[in-house]
Amino acid sequence: MGQGLGKVALVGTGAVGGYYGGMLALHGHDVHFLFRSTHDAVQSKGLWLIHNAERGKRDHINKLQAYTSSQSIGVCDWIIVAAKATANAEIVKVLEPLVDENTSLLTLQNGMGNVENLAHALGGDRTIIAGLCFTCINRTASHVIESLLPGYVQFGELGQSVSEEGMKMVHAFESSGVKVRVSESLDEALWRKLCWNVPFNGLSIAGGGITTDLILADPALKKRSYKLMLEIQAGAKAYGIEIEDAFLERQFELTEPMGPYKPSSLIDFLDGKPVEVYAIWGEALRRGEAKSISMPELKKLLHELSEATRLHNN
User: Fold this and answer.
1) Active site includes 45?
2) For residue 184, what is the enclosing H or E element?
3) Which parts of the chain sit beneath pLDDT 50?
């Protein structure tokens, strides 16, 4: 049995949540998964994890603790929130039956402001950490999650280094076979994550529903990607965070081997689901402009995404 975490609830069992929750469960942690539409499929077939980097190794979680309501799970020691940030306004009602004054939380959500949202909504002097997933993971069937590139998860805690309680979750991930990094500054980690998310998630939609390889192959889109990264770099610098030029170049090098990869925002868009437009692009623009940083490329992309998602959902 995995040690140190106690009872864990996984809220938002999509690709990312299902994969990391699955890895924890495989290594003996007491993980209780909250499912929605895929509950019946995983109940009958279990949850399968496929690791492409390990020659297609397959893990089957056959003793899956699957639920359709948080009331059925009850109070937990830890909650992992992997729901889309678009659900933040409604998620409090889902979390309330899982929480008491001693419950700690990990958010694996994209974008900025998620830790602050949870702290404001749930209150109390509780540990809330963020895990930024630098990886490629897709759900390829209702009960199958595929890791295309393992990457790593970078952990941080708002306004301080990761606490002793937070490090329990970090160690649990690491001992479950997940590569981890720990950041002294959560804000720095968030700005760095945006260097990939802003251009590649955004242009995959604005470019007409295209995969990352097509962004790299198009000189105009690739140039636009770099301009967007430079604006994120400038926004970070206004908050005292230095992102080196080599890190921006590295984003292209990391994307090349992904091949025809569909970023998570594109998958949501094509499936007719809400896209995290504000959490990823809107909040970055707001924070940059609050420091008088000019971000014309980001403003243009935000407008394009707002229009695309509005038209797509009408």
Assistant:
1) no
2) none
3) 1-2
